[in-house]
Design a protein that fits this description.
- It is a single chain.
- The strands form three sheets. Strands 1, 11, 12, 13, 14, 17, 18, 19 and 20 form a nine-stranded mixed sheet that branches. Strands 2-3-4-5-6-8-9-10 form an eight-stranded parallel barrel, surrounded by five helices.
- It is globular.
- With 420 residues, it is an alpha/beta fold.
- It folds into two domains: 151 residues, Beta Barrel (Lyase, Ornithine Decarboxylase, Chain A, domain 1), CATH 2.40.37; 236 residues, TIM Barrel.
- The relative contact order is 0.16.
- Helix 6 packs parallel to helix 7 and helix 8 packs parallel to helix 9.
- It binds pyridoxal-5'-phosphate (PLP).
- The site of pyridoxal-5'-phosphate has 18 residues, from helix 10.
């Protein structure tokens, strides 16, 4: 089995004795390490590293990153409000959203940076704030993602102003006397440094068309492996490749462009595990499957069901003295009455199931799902089947766990419903 466990089995058993399951546990040390890497990302003429709030938006995590000096990328007006509410300086927040918040004017007046992701958004911003500076998101025409639906660049993506419509964007800017000072191209570039180079080059080619742009934001998408068969982005190599392209751009055009990056996944994915309990086991005969049922599922981790993402997982025996080296092939399924609630899809064909190899387990043992720091707690099918949102813990550097989000109560689940 894996030897690079973020949290030791002994600690996991300890947690199961004090808390109800399922529970997310995030390792502070892992968070600090990844933050440090991103803050030290190679750059030629300055860097603003942002954390993409949507990856996990729990206050304790945002505050930790704020203290370390990261800025923030918000995906909705609500994320902006959430961040401001817990004390993050508005000037550190950039909004890149599919939906314009109704209170955009108020948020911008507070100091947030607005990034227009469509011609309509640019026009709307121009009406509210003529004679000002603005950032725009461009879809440069290439994308990177393991399935079409996970693509955030290229023709299958609706994010950003399509590259051929730059003249229209300029026209709108002129109409409202907007100065386009920042460009943004988040396409989720992935693990391959060559793709990052290509995106940096393409994006800088676009910068040429905007003489007033001083900052280029290349978005997030630095890859973290969610299971053994995925590759990680080498931050040093990728960063240096990008840096060279910025230096060349200066040598050729005399413009020192500042870099922004805004990872979500890379900063948090590895830090989290989900501790679940095996609540039942069954099989469907010799030509069927062997199922492990857990007291969690799409209510805490929807990525496998949503786009076939496979997270590595392992068994921790409840009884630590039980010696057992047998393994079994199993499909892990969640607790919702919903066929899509599976944790082990076939990565290459998300419609299909793919058994994983696990240590032989009994009802009452624990199934640990790894790399759940990003897009799990923030992306859950909250309250489906009326399961409460799970508790979240931070395993601090001093070895102690701290509750950073309590389990939801039944009163909270139904609090806004009319009872009479
Ligand atoms: C989601 C998102 C990110 C973060 O993407 P990761 O793949 O988690 O690194 C960055 N920028 C924008 C605009 C996003 O929407």
């Amino acid at each position: 089995m894996k030897n690079s466990k973020i949290i030791k089995d002994k600690k996991i058993r300890e947690i199961t004795r004090s808390f109800d399951l399922p529970i997310y546990v995030y390792d502070e040390n892992t968070l600090l390490k990844s933050a440090k890497q991103i803050i030290n990302f190679p750059n030629a003429y300055g860097l603003t590293p942002r954390y993409a709030i949507k990856a996990i938006s729990t206050a304790a995590i945002l505050k930790l990153f704020d203290k370390l000096g990261l800025h923030f990328d918000a995906s909705s007006g609500y994320e902006v409000e959430r961040a401001i509410m817990i004390g993050i300086t508005p000037e550190k927040i950039q909004l890149t959203a599919q939906e314009l918040p109704n209170n955009l004017q108020e948020l911008v007046n507070k100091g947030i940076i607005f990034n227009a992701t469509s011609l309509f958004q640019l026009e709307s911003y121009g009406k509210l704030f003529p004679n000002s500076n603005v950032s725009i998101r461009i879809n440069p025409g290439i994308g990177s993602g393991h399935v079409k639906r996970a693509n955030v660049g290229g023709p299958s993506s609706s994010f950003g102003i399509w590259k051929d419509y730059i003249p229209q964007a300029k026209q709108i800017a002129k109409k409202y006397n907007l100065k386009i000072t920042k460009l943004h191209t988040h396409i989720g570039s992935g693990a391959d440094p060559n793709v990052w180079e290509k995106v940096a080059q393409l994006s800088l080619n676009t910068v040429k068309l905007f003489p007033e742009v001083h900052t280029l934001n290349l978005g997030g998408g630095f890859k973290v492996p969610h299971s053994d068969h995925e590759e990680a982005t080498d931050i040093e190599n990728t960063g240096n490749a990008i840096k060279n392209i910025f230096v060349n751009f200066f040598n050729n055009f005399g413009r020192k462009i500042k870099l922004e990056i805004e990872p979500g996944n890379y900063l948090v994915a590895k830090s989290g595990i989900l501790i679940t309990k095996i609540i039942d086991k069954c099989d469907t005969g010799k030509d069927g499957y062997n199922f492990i049922k857990i007291n969690s599922g799409i209510t805490e981790i929807t990525r496998p069901a949503l786009y076939g993402s496979v997270h590595s997982m392992y068994i921790v025996k409840k009884n630590e003295t039980e010696i057992n080296n047998d393994t079994e092939k199993a499909i892990a399924v969640g607790h919702c009455c919903e066929t899509g609630d599976i944790l082990t899809p076939d990565n290459n064909n998300p419609e299909e199931l793919k058994p994983v190899n696990l240590k032989k387990s009994k009802i009452g043992d624990y199934l640990i799902v790894e790399n759940v720091g990003a897009y799990c707690s923030s992306m859950s099918f909250a309250n489906y089947n009326s399961f409460p949102k799970a508790e979240e813990l931070l395993l601090q550097n001093n070895g102690k766990v701290k509750i950073i989000r309590k389990r939801q109560t039944m009163e909270q689940i139904i609090q806004n419903e009319e009872m009479n």
